[in-house]
């Protein structure tokens, strides 16, 4: 395959709100400044190699539906390199600076670890070359520890020692190639780190193993001089019945128990938030207030479907809430927004790959602009400030500093009248929020 992959598709430009061109941005304007920072720096958008270049449209009931013209139906090294060139043309035309990968998406596995590593090295050498010519970067790399049958009981939490060792060797290599490619983060998503039944599971031992595994990863990171952030991606279940990194709060607690809070942040995925019974905003806020917001996997689920549909996020209010938290966090660099999202099985045109990312990027840009409006207007923050103003007093300060014991508070109650309890003003908050859309 020589030359262009996406023939007929130009570099995607910002044409503004009135444009009717599906292959143009209406809201995302990379260089435009919002609250003192360029849009591209707020987002640091990234394309997920696995969905965009390895997504086949296959589902548990049906065969693949995508017949991309550059695919030859094999998983050969030659094909892997061709896909990598397609990836760089894609991110260049889309105007995105970053990409993300699993080791096994970008290069074929091998009969042995050595063979798999050699395959990976060959593709990574090409990626390095393409990166240097295009100024594109790796947002994060990761090891795929869930597809191969050896990982059926997990990787770091497998009941089999040999599998734990294999997972360690695979992560070692994936960290090394991420570092070699100048990756800014490294992600752990424990797809099979969990259990199907507690009756046959020693949960305490499995979690201890996960703790030692992650400590070993930190030591290896330091040994090779990799300065990227290590990230854990919470997800409650699927494929396991119960995944150990259930949600942000569970994962934060795990990191505290095992003394890993200094070394890890969280990669929050919106669809995983829904699966754990939370909103994406809740998960991002939980990560933020724990000082652990590291990256966002920008996608969404379907409100009527209970699995990880990995759709492109098009809900503008949701994007606004996400951006309110991201702005409060001062941005998420060196993390970014990775489109861990795929086309619907029925979307089969090459241009659909572009349109999907364009609508995802425009949605986030609208969220950013709305959030900036809300922050500049200040009435929402004022409503929240007022709600807690009874604590902006001498006694409030004593309580918040931990100086007010129960005897003091009992004494104060006796001196005070029945508490005056103000309205929460939720509808007013919603009205203010909605007026920014
Ligand atoms: C699947 C997960 C993965 C991670 C990377 O639910 O989102 O795609 O992002 O392993």
Structure description:
The chain has helices spanning 39-43, 49-54, 77-94, 103-106, 113-134, 161-180, 203-224, 248-257, 270-275, 280-289, 316-328, 350-377, 379-387, 394-400, 406-415, 426-435, and strands at 13-14, 24-25, 33-34, 37-38, 46-48, 98-102, 137-142, 185-188, 194-195, 229-232, 242-243, 264-269, 293-297, 337-339. It is of the alpha/beta class. It has an 8-stranded parallel β-barrel with strand order 5-6-7-8-10-12-13-14. The radius of gyration is 24 Å and the shape is globular. The model has no long low-confidence stretch (mean pLDDT 97). Xylitol binds next to loops.
Q: Can you lay out the helices and strands and say which pair or pack?
A:
Blueprint: E1 13-14, E2 24-25, E3 33-34, E4 37-38, H1 39-43, E5 46-48, H2 49-54, H3 77-94, E6 98-102, H4 103-106, H5 113-134, E7 137-142, H6 161-180, E8 185-188, E9 194-195, H7 203-224, E10 229-232, E11 242-243, H8 248-257, E12 264-269, H9 270-275, H10 280-289, E13 293-297, H11 316-328, E14 337-339, H12 350-377, H13 379-387, H14 394-400, H15 406-415, H16 426-435
Helix pairs in contact: 3-5, 5-6, 6-7, 10-11, 11-12
The structure holds Xylitol.
Xylitol binds next to loops.
Largest sheet: 8 strands, parallel, barrel
Q: So what's the oligomer here?
A: single chain
Report the CATH topology name of the largest domain: TIM Barrel
| Spatial gap, N to C terminus | 46 Å
Structural class: alpha/beta
* CATH level-two architecture of the largest domain: Alpha-Beta Barrel
């Amino acid at each position: 395959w020589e030359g262009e992959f996406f023939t007929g598709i130009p570099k995607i430009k910002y044409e503004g709100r009135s444009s009717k061109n599906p292959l143009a941005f209406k809201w995302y304007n990379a260089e435009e400044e919002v609250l003192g920072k360029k849009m591209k720096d707020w987002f640091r958008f990234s394309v997920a190699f696995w969905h965009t270049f390895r997504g086949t449209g296959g589902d548990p009931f049906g065969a693949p539906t995508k017949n991309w013209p550059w695919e030859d139906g094999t998983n050969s090294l030659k094909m892997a390199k061709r896909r990598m060139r397609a990836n760089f043309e894609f991110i260049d035309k889309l105007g995105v600076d970053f990409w993300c990968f699993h080791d096994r998406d970008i290069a074929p596995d091998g009969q042995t670890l050595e063979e798999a590593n050699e395959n990976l090295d060959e593709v990574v050498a090409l990626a390095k070359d393409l990166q240097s010519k295009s100024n594109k970067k790796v947002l994060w790399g990761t090891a795929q520890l869930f597809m191969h049958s050896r990982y059926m009981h997990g990787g770091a939490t497998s009941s089999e020692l040999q599998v734990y060792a294999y997972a360690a060797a695979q992560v070692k290599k994936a960290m090394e190639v991420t570092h070699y490619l100048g990756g800014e983060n490294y992600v752990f998503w424990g797809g099979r780190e969990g259990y199907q039944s507690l009756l046959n599971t020693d949960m305490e031992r499995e979690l201890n193993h996960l703790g030692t595994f992650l400590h070993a990863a930190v030591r290896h990171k330091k040994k090779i001089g990799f300065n990227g952030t290590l990230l854990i991606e919470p997800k409650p279940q699927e494929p396991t019945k119960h995944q150990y990194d259930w949600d942000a709060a569970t994962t934060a607690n795990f990191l505290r128990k095992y003394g890993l809070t200094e070394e890890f942040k969280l990669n929050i995925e919106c669809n995983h938030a829904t699966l754990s019974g939370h909103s994406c905003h809740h998960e991002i806020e939980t990560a933020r207030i724990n000082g652990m917001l590291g990256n966002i996997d920008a996608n969404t689920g379907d409100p009527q479907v209970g699995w990880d549909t990995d759709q492109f996020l098009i809900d503008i209010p949701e994007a606004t809430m996400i951006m309110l938290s991201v702005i409060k966090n001062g941005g998420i660099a060196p993390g970014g927004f990775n489109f861990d999202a795929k086309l619907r099985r029925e979307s089969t045109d090459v241009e659909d790959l572009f349109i999907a990312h364009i609508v995802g990027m425009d949605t986030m840009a609208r969220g950013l602009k709305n959030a900036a409006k809300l922050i500049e207007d200040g009435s929402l923050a004022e409503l929240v400030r007022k709600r807690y103003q009874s604590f902006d007093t001498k006694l409030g300060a004593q309580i918040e500093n931990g100086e007010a014991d129960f005897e003091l508070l009992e004494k104060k109650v006796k001196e005070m009248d029945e508490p005056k309890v103000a309205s929460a003003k939720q509808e007013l908050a919603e009205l203010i929020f909605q007026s920014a859309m």
